[in-house]
Amino acid sequence: MPYTVNCNQGKTQRFKRTVLFPLSSVFLLVLSSFTFASEKAETETLVTHQTYRSCSVIASEMLTTVQLHQKGIPVDTLRTTLPGLTENGLNRLSLLYKKIDSQGALAVYSLANSQYSRCAKSVFDRQGKPKPQEPDYLFYFCSGENKIRHEIILARMVNAPMQDLIRQLPQGRKALAPYIYNIVKEKDLKAAYDFSATELKRCLNQ
Questions:
Q1: Which residues form the signal peptide (predicted)?
Q2: Which candidate, 50, 59, 121, 135, has a CA 20 to 30 Å from the CA of 42?
Q3: What's this model's pTM, rounded to 2 decimal places?
Q4: Is residue 6 very low, low, confident or very high in pLDDT (cuts 50, 70, 90)?
């Protein structure tokens, strides 16, 4: 059964930093191994004038592209099956496919998620938390949920003890750690990121 969280749950927990004890420095090493200078420049541009909505849409598009790539769907097929796809959109897909081919799906999954976290954090620093009745609240909520999943996957990536991780998660999200750890055990890290990407889209479509 899919692990789902409704945006009406846990509203007070968005953007409370999930501090993963001494692993924070290890996470930086993991992320830096997946991020190159040009990508850092892209990220700096990405987060300059964004909203929670735009951060979420960009992340969703990137993550969906990785999922399509992993299903073996060629870019040329997307040209014919997605009639609304513009030439610029197709070019972005092609570039991302090349990045996946050269760096691997796991690296691009991690990059997309870390960029999403930084993008949403930059919006939070400028605008703060939106009110629940505001249109951006859903995107704010979904970005926070995605951040938690991403940090759990990073914890599993460096073999962090699950019980130590669970103690530091928000009360309503503790069951998510064993769920994701089990996905990695039965499949792999890419499957965990695939699950997280699907959950993000499910969240955004509430």
A1: 1-37
A2: 135
A3: 0.79
A4: low
